[in-house]
Every structure is written in structure tokens, then in C-alpha cells.
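Comment thread on ticket #2218

A.B. wrote:
> Attaching the input chain for the structure job we discussed in standup.
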Amino acid sequence: MDKELDVFRRELVDVQGVPLFWSIAEEWSQVESFEARPDDLLIATYPKSGTTWISEILDLIYNNGDVEKCKQNAIYKRVPFMELIIPGLDNGVEDLKKKQSPRLVKTHLPVQLLPSSFWKNNCKMVYVARNAKDVAVSYYYFYQMAKLHPEPGTWEEFLDKFMTGKVAFGAWYDHVKGWWEKRNDYRILYLFYEDMKEDPKREIQKLLKFLDKDLPEETVDKILYYSSFDVMKQNPFTNYTTVAGVRMDHSISPFMRKGILGDWKNHFTVAQYERFEKEYDKKMKGSTLSFRSEI
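C.D. wrote:
> Ran it. Output below, let me know if you need it in another format.
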């Protein structure tokens, strides 16, 4: 048990001003020197923005809708989390080295921390952004169940950490803006979680076009079905129930919790909402990025 305590609930450590898990900070040189391949597809998101959803969609696209192929392994094995390194438990860099091309690569890194080999190789990238209030709520529940994070404290305390960027992977505002600004110079498809909820088929078509891939209508419909929240929530290969309980406690909160829009309304008090909106306007001032917090 002592070993577990060594690994879990430790404070975050800054890497170039961005708070990351202590173990990533310790092994940062491995991450920084990661060798991307020209045919890698990078899936980049701020945490709790639909990462597993977009990963499953893309893996289904890569396997031409072959569901059985996608069920050969858990999503975190099929789409390794590049920078996640925990001594004796995980090493995304090593997992990716063993993978055959073309690889799907997951990251939560803000744009300025991405290994330079991705830019050098002009890799295609898919970024998914989700409105800040829903992210904050989802992240709060995730902090409670995923024990690599420090203790979240109360909702009020966590919201304060979120607004000041003192959470894993830093400030949401900087993250979404950083990737948004890069999209003009590199091959980045920038998607919104809210658009995916509103019309998932339309967004899958965007992905196919971006990947220069053509799939028959029935395959697209199949991908649509198998990547739906209800199906993924029941699928042990996507719902993270295969992760050891010491690492993720699904009894506190399931990994796939609600997957809806506007859950923030059930959590924010009027005072919190007003404070959040004021801060939001200040942080997002001058950006052409705009979000919907309901449809």
C-alpha cells in the first residue's frame, strides 16, 4: 500500500509553468524527445473534453468500422497517452515506440509543450475543445475518481483551482486558445464537443475529409452507433473499467459519467456563475474562439 501512496494523490509539478503529474515532470526529457512519425495522427484535448470519444471514433475510422478489431484492446492501449509516465505502471512513450504505423497518439499537453517532432514532421492533428463550465464540472468528478491527481477538495475549492490554472495540464483558457491559434499554420482540425453532440454524423464527415478517407454510408452509421455515449459507457474497452481500482475508483464516479451538455447548471451557484463569467470574459478577451454552453 505504501508504494501506491507514493504514486497517488501527489502534488502537481510545474514544467515550463504548466502543472503536470509529478511523474511526467520527472521523466520530461523522455516526452520532450518523443519521435513523431510523419503519418502519426495526434489527438489533442484539454482533459474531459471528449478525448475517449474522439479516440474511439478515429480508431473505428482507421479500422474501417471493424468493431471486433477495436475490441481487441482497451482504448488506452489502442491510442496511447503519450506523456503519461508512471514508474512501474505506465510509459506512453515506450508504448508508442512499439506501435506499428499509422499510430493514433493522445496528448493533453498545451501547444507550447508538444514535442517539436510533431511540428517538424507536419503531422495531422485533431483538437477537440469543450465549453469551460462543463469541463470544470467533469474534471472535478474525474479528480475524485482518478487518483493520480491531487485531492480535489470541495467543488468551490476545485473551481478556484480550475479558474487559476492550478490543475493538471494548466489553464483551460490558455490550452484552447493556444491550439486555436496554431491551426492556421499546421494541419490541425479543430472540433467542438458541442458540435459533436449536436450532429455527430456531420463531425465524422469532417474527420473523413480531413483524413482523405472515404467510407460507405453504412460504415459511417456503424461508427456513429458504436461511438455513441450509451454504447461506449457499456463497453469495457472504452469505459476504463479495465483500469485497476486503486488507480480509478468508479464507485466514486464512473469514468464515463454523463456525457451531456449543460451539467454545469446543476453545480454552479449564482455567485460562482457570475464570478466565473467575469473571469472568463477577461481571459478570453480578444480571442475569436467562441463556445456554446448549451444547445
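A.B. wrote:
> Thanks. Noting for the ticket: Strands lie at 13-15, 18-20, 41-45, 85-86, 90-91, 104-107, 124-129, 188-192.
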